[in-house]
Design goal:
Elements: E1 2-5, H1 10-22, E2 27-30, H2 41-46, E3 54-56, E4 62-64, H3 66-74, H4 84-114, H5 122-127, H6 129-143, H7 156-165, H8 179-189
Parallel strand pairs: 1-2
Antiparallel strand pairs: 1-3, 3-4
Helix pairs in contact: 1-3, 1-7, 4-6, 4-7, 6-8
Length: about 200
C-alpha cells in the first residue's frame, strides 16, 4: 500500500504512527502541499478533495480522511476494538478532534509553522487560542478520569488527538496548565514501537 502525505502534518502523522505501532508495511509518498502537489490532476483523480493523507491500497482503491484511514488500518487490533460501544467512544473523540480541536490547534500551528505567522494572519492566529484551550481543558478533564482518552485502553482515539496535541506549542498553546494531559503524552510516547513525528 501507498500513503501520500507530509511528514510535518499531524493528520499524516496519525497514519504513520499507526503503521509504526502495528508494523504495517507501506510505501510513503511525500506530498508538498505548499508546492501545489495536492492540486495536480493525478492527485485529484485519486482524491477530488485535494487533501492528504491519502491511502492507496494494493488494488488501487483509495481512502481519504486521516481518522477513517487509521480506523481502517487498525481494524481487528487492540487499537480499534470490535465492541460497538468502544468503537462509538473512539468515534466520539475523533469527531471532537476534527470539530473542536483541530480547527484551532492545527490551524494555529499551520499559520505559525508553515506560513511563518505573517502579519496578515496575526488576527486569525490570535482568534484560535481560546478555542484551542477549551479543547485542551476538555481533554485534561477526561484524562484526569481515565488513562487514555476513550477509557482504560490506548486506541486510535488517542492517536487522533496525540498528533496535534504533542506539537500544540508550535501553535502557541503551552501545556503547563494541563498535568494530566502531559502525563498522557508521556504514556503515548513510551509505547512499544512508538516513533515521533519526523
Amino acid at each position: 500500500m501507498k500513503i501520500y502525505g507530509d511528514r510535518k502534518s499531524g493528520n499524516c502523522y496519525k497514519v504513520q504512527l499507526v503503521c509504526d505501532l502495528l508494523g504495517i508495511k507501506h510505501e510513503w509518498v511525500d506530498v508538498d502541499i505548499l508546492a501545489g502537489d495536492t492540486k495536480s490532476d493525478p492527485f485529484l483523480a485519486m482524491n477530488p478533495n485535494g487533501k492528504i493523507p491519502l491511502l492507496e491500497l494494493d488494488d488501487g482503491e483509495t481512502l481519504a480522511e486521516s481518522n477513517a484511514i487509521i480506523n481502517y488500518l487498525a481494524a481487528g487490533s487492540a487499537l480499534y476494538p470490535e465492541n460497538g460501544l468502544a468503537q462509538a467512544r473512539i468515534l466520539q473523540w475523533q469527531f471532537f478532534e476534527q470539530y473542536s480541536h483541530e480547527p484551532y490547534i492545527a490551524v494555529a500551528r499551520f499559520i505559525n509553522k508553515y506560513l511563518g505567522l505573517p502579519e496578515e494572519k496575526a488576527d486569525e492566529y490570535a482568534s484560535k487560542q481560546a478555542g484551542g484551550h477549551k479543547a485542551l481543558q476538555v481533554m485534561e478533564h477526561q484524562l484526569g478520569i481515565t488513562p487514555y482518552i476513550a477509557g482504560t485502553n490506548f486506541t486510535t482515539a488517542d492517536i487522533s488527538l496525540y498528533a496535534y496535541t504533542h506539537v500544540a506549542h508550535e501553535g502557541g498553546f503551552e501545556l503547563e496548565a494541563y498535568p494530566a494531559l502531559q502525563a498522557w503524552l508521556d504514556r503515548v510516547a513510551s509505547l512499544p514501537n512508538f516513533k515521533g513525528m519526523a
